[in-house]
Design a protein that fits this description.
Layout: E1 5-6, E2 9-10, H1 13-18, E3 22-24, E4 29-33, H2 43-47, H3 68-76, E5 83-87, H4 93-99, E6 103-107, E7 111-116, E8 122-131, E9 134-142, H5 151-165, E10 169-172, H6 175-183
Parallel strand pairs: 9-10
Antiparallel strand pairs: 1-2, 3-4, 4-5, 6-7, 7-8, 8-9
Bound molecules: iron/sulfur cluster.
Iron/sulfur cluster binds next to helix 2.
Amino acid sequence: MEGNKINGKTVTEEDLLGLGYRKYYSDDLDVFYNKDICAHVGNCVRGDSNVFEVGRRPWIITGNAESAEQCIQVVNSCPSGALKWLYHGQDNLAKEETTMPTFTFEDQGDQIILINSDTKQQAGEIAFMEAESTLIIVHTGVNPEYRGNGLAEQLVAKVVEKARREDKKIFPICPFAQKEFKIKPEYADVLRQDV
Ligand code: SF4
């Protein structure tokens, strides 16, 4: 089932909210759920238990998806139409992939910024404080037009590289960074566990 359509017609947020769907937001993708339509088949939970977990509040955390594309696949597997998705700011995922600029990273001491190589403008940042040789990640953000391309993940990876290089640990407070550490066991060597 195409999770961004109803009766073959592409839906809008207004359509879905008007039909009684509830919105579960993330940076690049919104998932909508209508409990009155749900047939409790469980394709969603089996498809990605990080995003869909019965009993948790909220039971859908769209930002836990590995990628928007993967989350869309799971939503499309919902047979009842209780789940819908809307991708932010574009009509065609592939189109954005082909027009993405290149980026560089600049370590400014208390943040690493993402720079669009073409425009030289800041396109995102990951901010951290330092205490007791620990980098406390407080914020990760990417400008809306560049979201959904793994850049926030790359920002977290840059802080991991910095911590290894400078023999420091990391304590993520920012929810996105916390999720990255949860799903990437390869970051365990720099994760501060004793706080
Ligand atoms: S896949 Fe759809 S119908 Fe099945 S449990 Fe999830 S939301 Fe309900």
